[in-house]
């Protein structure tokens, strides 16, 4: 996910620079958060293979904005030199990474953007503070100077469509209002990979499943229908082409506000193939399976993290 976000953001920077040069404009557009600084990105990977793969995926123009480093250890020195930090590693790694000695000092007062599903900003902040060996009794003391310099953590969950600039990214509504320049940057960052929607904290786990896991879950019925087409004599690429066209039509209808039940009813003719297909799915209990998939995925994210 981190790589997809990086590619789209750097693409936007390259295009903005080209536009400025073509129009002989010396400064970025006033609406762009880039106007305050010439951003350069440092991408940190764990292995040299990952670093080489990421670097190889960048065009020469993109490379002028990005440096890629790798280390088996947490790169605290790199983080210390950054103005903004994006956490895009696997969620299960959060504790090991953020409790690394020196992490609180490296992140103090900075904007930290997390794309880690299941980890709240409060969870991540507590981990960062533990890197300073703060006791539980001190975590509630607002007068504690260490707490006063805590990072500002924002949670945002994009999905795999970010690589195609078609992600729907959910952003958790912060407990406290963000400074305008930070809020503008977060919105600009994720608008480069698609659309954004704010959700309250108590809906973020469900939203994460809906925008993320659901994409994977929906490939199951797609693949099943393609298998059925092959059995009935159609080549899989041809079936895929027709399936994609149908899904685009379905998307257009839903975006126009058509209710799914109304849509099904409108295309179900007496003695027709549509009602036969629908009855087959209802007999199999497919509707309940998908409801349960959403519930189980959400409950998994809500489980206490150890």
From TrEMBL:
Organism superkingdom: Eukaryota
GO biological process, one term: L-proline biosynthetic process
Keyword Membrane: no
Keyword NADP: yes
Alphabetical list of SUPFAM superfamilies matching this protein: 6-phosphogluconate dehydrogenase C-terminal domain-like, NAD(P)-binding Rossmann-fold domains
Residue span(s) of domain Pyrroline-5-carboxylate reductase dimerisation: 202-301
Family affiliation: Belongs to the pyrroline-5-carboxylate reductase family.
Chain ranges of the Pyrroline-5-carboxylate reductase catalytic N-terminal domain: 46-118
Record-given protein name: Pyrroline-5-carboxylate reductase
Organism: Penicillium oxalicum (strain 114-2 / CGMCC 5302) (Penicillium decumbens)
InterPro entries (alphabetical): 6-PGluconate_DH-like_C_sf (IPR008927), NAD(P)-bd_dom_sf (IPR036291), P5C_Rdtase_cat_N (IPR028939), P5CR_dimer (IPR029036), Pyrroline-COOH_reductase (IPR000304)
Alphabetical UniProt keywords: NADP
Binding site for NADP(+): 88-91
GO terms, molecular function: pyrroline-5-carboxylate reductase activity
């Amino acid at each position: 996910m981190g790589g997809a976000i990086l590619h789209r953001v750097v693409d936007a920077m390259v295009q903005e620079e080209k536009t400025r040069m073509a129009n002989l404009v010396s400064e970025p557009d006033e609406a762009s958060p880039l106007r305050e600084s010439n951003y350069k990105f440092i991408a940190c990977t764990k292995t040299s293979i990952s670093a080489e793969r990421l670097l190889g995926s960048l065009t020469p123009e993109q490379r002028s904005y990005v440096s890629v480093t790798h280390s088996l250890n947490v790169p605290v020195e790199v983080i210390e030199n950054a103005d903004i930090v994006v956490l895009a590693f696997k969620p299960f790694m959060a504790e090991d990474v953020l409790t690394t000695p020196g992490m609180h000092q490296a992140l103090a007062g900075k904007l930290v953007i997390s794309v880690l599903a299941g980890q709240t900003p409060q969870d991540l902040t507590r981990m960062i503070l533990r890197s300073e060996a703060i006791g539980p009794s001190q975590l509630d003391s607002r007068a504690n100077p260490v707490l006063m310099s805590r990072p500002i953590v924002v949670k945002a969950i994009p999905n795999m469509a970010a690589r195609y600039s078609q992600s729907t990214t959910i952003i958790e509504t912060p407990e406290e209002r963000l400074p305008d320049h930070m809020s503008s940057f977060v919105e600009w960052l994720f608008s480069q990979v698609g659309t954004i929607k704010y959700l309250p904290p108590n809906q973020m786990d469900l939203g994460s499943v809906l925008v993320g896991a659901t994409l994977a879950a929906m490939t199951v019925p797609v693949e099943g229908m393609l298998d059925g087409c092959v059995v009935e004599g159609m080549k899989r690429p041809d079936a895929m082409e027709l399936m994609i066209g149908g899904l685009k039509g379905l998307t257009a209808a839903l975006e126009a506000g058509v209710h799914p039940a109304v849509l099904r009813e409108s295309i179900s003719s007496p003695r027709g193939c549509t009602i036969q297909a629908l009855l087959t799915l209802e007999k199999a209990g497919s509707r309940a399976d998908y409801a349960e998939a959403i519930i189980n995925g959400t409950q998994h994210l809500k489980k206490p993290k150890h």
